[in-house]
Design a protein that fits this description.
The structure is a single chain. By secondary structure, the protein is α+β, with helices and mostly antiparallel strands. About 45% of the residues lie in helices and about 20% in strands. A 5-stranded antiparallel beta sheet has the order 6-5-4-3-7. Strands 9-10-8-11 form a 4-stranded antiparallel beta sheet. A hairpin with a 6-residue loop joins strand 3 and strand 4. It is elongated. The N and C termini lie far apart (about 80 Å).
Amino acid sequence: MSAGRLLSLLLLLQARGRISARGIADELGVSVRTAYRDLARLQAAGVPVYAEPGPGGGYQLLDGYRTRLTGMTEGEARALFFAGLPGPAADLGLTAEVTAARLKLLAALPTGPREEATRTAAVFHVDAPGWYRETEQTPHLPLFVDAVLTRRAVDVRYRRWRAPQVVDRRLRPYGLVLKSGVWYAVAAVEGGRIAAYRVSQVLDAVLSDECFDRPQGFDLAAYWTSYLDDFEARRYTGTATIRLSPRGRRRLPDNVPGTVVRAVDSTATPVGDEGWVEAVIPIESTDHACGELLRLGIDVEVVSPVDLREAMAATVGVLARAYGVR
């Protein structure tokens, strides 16, 4: 086995406390048999690893045993500094903690990795929100951080897009997700249904006395991926055929979602001699598609459906009258 994997196993035991052989194998990307063999080699090297039998058992280090050895490479030190970027940390109310942790990490690193980490921190900055929109106000986000970490339910008043707009909910938050500068709480409600709640739409929030357990095996990243897939499937209810000029196609990524851009790229066929293309795109509704496509002005033409083409024409007619054009 490599010395690097032996060190990784030692640090894993130190960080996790108790962990099963299967858990070790999954974390290190090895077989369970290899995990057992590596544990035996650690013990042979004098590291106080012992096994706890039973369904909740596993392997752990003797209480109080710590190693100062990290073996951190320059690349690993560089990567670690991306975990505490200041914007999200400030949103979560963790600025002081992240700053202190970074200083302690720097102090503990050897000269080479320390210099690499310092250079990395100086040349990267993340500004999560997209262009043309203000940063959302999330005054209740630190409370949700507390609720996630202590596994306590939260009573909220929440503003949603459909009627009734303001509802009362008891949420059991399993985790927090930052998506394009917007924070979401992934939480269970009565009956066990799991949903995503936009934290900026929480009007009021109070920690309750109820404690809860996250379902065993719940994977926040996997849930969020499936949530996005489901959202995309529900979001688009129909299709439209449009024609785009070369300039309209260049402007497309700045004015419509990526799903629409990809649809144009995959279905575009040339029409005429001036570089125009015809493509089929997904649409949410006639009103929404009309507003979205009008951003492209004279560089787009709706071919079908008829109701969308008529909505575009009607809107252009209103604009023409507003500007005194017959």
